Amino acid sequence: NRVLKEMLQQKTLYTAKTGMFEVRRALSDGFTQRYQIDGGSNDGLEVGMPVVTEAGLAGQLVVLFQSHELLGVVLVNQLIQDKNQEVPVLFTTSHVRGIVRGSGDGTTLQSRDLPFSDKIRVGEKVVTSGLDGIYPKGIPVGVVTKVEPGDSGSYIDVTVSSPKSIGTSEYVLVLYVDTKVELPDL
What we know:
The chain is mostly beta strands. It has one helix spanning 2-11, and strands spanning 17-28, 33-37, 50-53, 56-63, 75-79, 86-91, 96-102, 108-115, 125-128, 140-149, 155-161, 171-176.
């Protein structure tokens, strides 16, 4: 009940229409982290839509099938901790924008090569920036746990811990956003 109440509270935070889906199965091959949920194209879902849990951003829809209860056809979500996933973010205190990538370890994200002058600090909250047009601005992504000089010394590398419930939640919200964002011709 607690988780469902938290999910209902999450729904009120987003201006986009949302749909709640049950997590059916976790899939991990050591290189990627994904899980299946009980929704599909018949539910209006599209590849690229963001997926959130009660703790924050969980990932993005990457494979989509039609829903059919008898066949158990489901949708696969790629977690943000996956090393192939990138998310544009905003560090909330320093107001620095960057991109986090999954580290592949299932618990942390990395943002590399940020300008050395940036004032990012351990403990700073990280949220989606909204700049990509897919992830709405303000979805919690994690908290900064480490800031260290990069290899060249001119940049910093930042480690972000992702919320613990991501990948272990029983339910997720899918945000119905337009995934076909096009840039205007310049």
